[in-house]
Amino acid sequence: MAVTPSPELTLGPVFFNWHAEKWRDFYFRIADEVPFSTVYLGETICSKRTPLFDHVMPLVIERLRAAGKIVVISTLAEVTSDKDRKCVETVCDGEGFTIEANDASALRALRGRAHHIGPFINAYNEVTLSFLANNGAQNICLPPEMPETAIQALCANTNLRKTSIEVIVFGRLPLALSARCYHARAHGRTKDSCQFVCEDDPDGLNLTTLSGQNFLSVNGIQTLSYEYLNLANDLTRLREHGVSRFRLSPHTCDMVQAAKIFRRILDGDLDGAEAISQLRAILPQSKFCNGFYHRKPGHRWIEAPPPESENSAMMRDTTALA
Amino acid sequence: MPIQSARNGNLLKPELVCPAGTPAGLRAAVEAGADTVYCGLQNATNARNFPGLNFTPVELAEAVAYAHARGAKLLLAVNTFPPSGQFSLWRDAIDLAAKLAVDAVIIADMGVADYAAKTYPALRLHLSVQAGASSPAAIQFYCESFGIKRVVLPRILTVDEIASIHAQIPCEIEAFVFGNIGLMAEGRCSLSNYATGLSTNMDGVCSPAGDVKYEEDGAGNLTAKLGPYVIDRFARSETAGYPTICKGRYSCNARNHPYYAFEEPVSLNLSALLPDLMRAGVTALKIEGRQRSRAYVKQVVSAFRRAVDDLMQGRDPAIHELITLTEGRRQTEGAFASKKWR
């Protein structure tokens, strides 16, 4: 078992286009009520959205900092247009903040400076991680499709005092990025003429298959899972492997309550099964998934093995139909 | 590796880079006029890790000798992302590439690039489209970090954007001109893994055949599924496509009818834009399709060989025959002509 610092709960950036006031009030509540050590802020999906909440950003940063949270600014994930480039440059030029890089252009801008690596950068192995650490990375949030075996091997081969490992444990899975805006496309528009129609879907626009199966959710140029990732059952083992930071991805559900549940698991006050039942109460209409972690199709929900037969138990593999 | 560059007006003669899924496909591509062929090993180290495809180390050695004896170059694609615990498979691929003196290795993972650059400084590295480097600064980062000599650009850029990037980067540009086009940023897509449990990035396979199912109803309509998910349906009269998530039809509450939520199932055909691409500074023209048949490769490569040679000699290229080879016989100039599609 790796020696790990005390586990931290972090809040990832909001992927969706929330109204500025709603966005501000969300973070005010986070600042006042939730035990996050680090809060990632900033637009990661669409550079067109950044002017929409620029005016409330300083207030939110101030409030979070006053509450003792570390604020990290995340950069854009997919950089294609001049506007995108400018957006990344502006963030990386900012002084007084730690930056989380989400594409290689940000890695260049941040070379030699302490920074974080976001989940949109492909850091799958110890050689990549060591290269990134030499570039200045101090914390790496792993790609969400990493299975437990690879996470365990990565932690075993990493100096965790120098570079901490962060894993996303809650929220719709970010699955793909594109240069095309799928929100605009759904409404018969293009990215340039979108009229910010993505603001209608604060948790994403759901796509169902021709047979009516819930499948995916689109958010501008991003495609997410329909199911919500939930690694509540796996926190203890992740900690044992050496993962020290656990990230929740913001949604419109009660994130304060979700964070408190995850905090209680980390503090040993709540077991996974009870946590999952409490999380189901927060998201009664939704389904959970954890397949990627178990090296199964990502949409699946794998039940935890019964504790008494931990070493010999076959994972019970049930497709999430609940 | 010197670039063959015969001048014709403003045009530099581009290198035609062709797919080689098998040794027989490789010979077909070279005979049809490929300047360069690219291939992969029979494992997860490349992004076309399909059964019955790719090369054993012995076959690769023979392929290098075959290509070099005919004046063609051979590139090895080691363009997936090793998960921790399995890095040695990718390291072995780089070691083999260096030992066999392939003309370049196409890499995507920063760790693999770092290993190759440090261990074999003379080994030429190309940046795979799987690395997802879509801006000058991103490409510069890879060039400065690993000495990348050529970048394969994502299929999402317009000709003008390619020209602009060309002016800002210190390496050559390779651009896709024909074949299967995806709009999802390459190397950043877990959709297939979400449905099937096999990862495009880590396992080198998108829409694995073992997870594809076609179900026929009483009226002869075909439903195409990937894993448990319905990707599309085809009437008896339609050509059924292969179920790829980003080319499927779905419903959402903004639409009254199912629609291609991501993109139409079309193939990329830039043959009409060849002069523009060459003027934009593209060094190499890449044809996609290591998974395609030898006959297909022969036809496409021959047609592009003639088109490039015609252009270099000031003739209008005859390219109409390529249309019959495109997916569902529907083709697109994709992102390259304008950015209105975004």
Helix content of chain B: 25-40%
Distance between the termini of chain A: 35 Å
Main sheet attributes: strand count, strand direction, barrel closure of chain B: 8 strands, parallel, barrel
Write down how many β-strands of chain B occur, each being a DSSP E stretch of 2 or more residues: 17
In angstroms, what separates the terminal alpha carbons of chain B? 37 Å
Classify the fold: give the CATH topology of the largest domain in chain B: TIM Barrel
Low-confidence stretches of chain B: 1-8
CATH superfamily of the largest domain in chain B: Aldolase class I
Q: Which two protein chains have the largest interface (Cβ within 8 Å of the partner's Cβ), and how many residues from each? A: A-B, 78 and 76 residues
Number of strands of chain A: 14
Layout: helices, strands, pairs:
The complex is a heterodimer of chains A (about 325) and B (about 350).
Chain A: E1 8-11, H1 20-33, E2 38-41, H2 50-53, H3 57-66, E3 70-74, H4 82-93, E4 98-101, H5 104-109, E5 115-117, H6 126-135, E6 137-141, H7 148-156, E7 164-177, H8 182-186, E8 205-208, E9 214-219, E10 222-230, H9 235-241, E11 245-248, H10 255-266, H11 272-282, E12 288-289, E13 301-302, E14 317-318
Parallel strand pairs in A: 1-2, 1-11, 2-3, 3-4, 4-5, 5-6, 6-7, 7-11, 10-12
Antiparallel strand pairs in A: 7-10, 8-9, 9-10, 13-14
Helix pairs in contact in A: 1-3, 10-11
Chain B: E1 7-8, E2 11-12, E3 15-19, H1 23-31, E4 36-39, H2 57-69, E5 73-78, H3 87-99, E6 104-107, H4 110-119, E7 125-127, H5 136-146, E8 150-152, H6 159-168, E9 172-180, H7 191-196, H8 200-203, E10 212-216, E11 222-226, E12 229-234, E13 249-250, E14 259-260, E15 267-269, H9 274-279, E16 284-287, H10 294-312, E17 331-332
Parallel strand pairs in B: 3-4, 3-16, 4-5, 5-6, 6-7, 7-8, 8-9, 9-16, 15-17
Antiparallel strand pairs in B: 1-2, 9-15, 10-11, 11-12, 13-14
Helix pairs in contact in B: 1-2, 1-10
